[in-house]
Design goal:
By secondary structure, this protein is an all-alpha fold. Helix content is 97%, strand content 0%. It contains 1 helix and no strands. The longest helix has 73 residues. It is rod-shaped.
Length: 75
């Protein structure tokens, strides 16, 4: 009788552990999905920022060239 109870306890413990593992795996999948979404968002924002920075740099170079040309014309 005692052996049967131990076997039943082991089965119960195994079910509990399997349920815990399943929950951990689901939580991990949700966490990973959120990280991937956040990563895509950050990459998009980074790309937009780099584009704006590039465009501002182009504007700055154009202004510098214009100023140089204006300075040469005035002399």
């Amino acid at each position: 009788m005692e052996l049967e109870e131990k076997v039943e306890q082991l089965r119960f413990s195994r079910r509990v552990l399997m349920n815990l593992i399943e929950k951990i795996e689901k939580d991990k999948a949700v966490f990973l999905k959120n990280l991937e979404r956040e990563n895509r968002k950050l990459q998009r924002n980074n790309f937009r920022f780099a584009q704006r920075l590039w465009n501002k740099n182009i504007q700055l170079v154009e202004l510098e060239l214009r100023n140089k040309n204006d300075f040469k014309k005035s002399n």
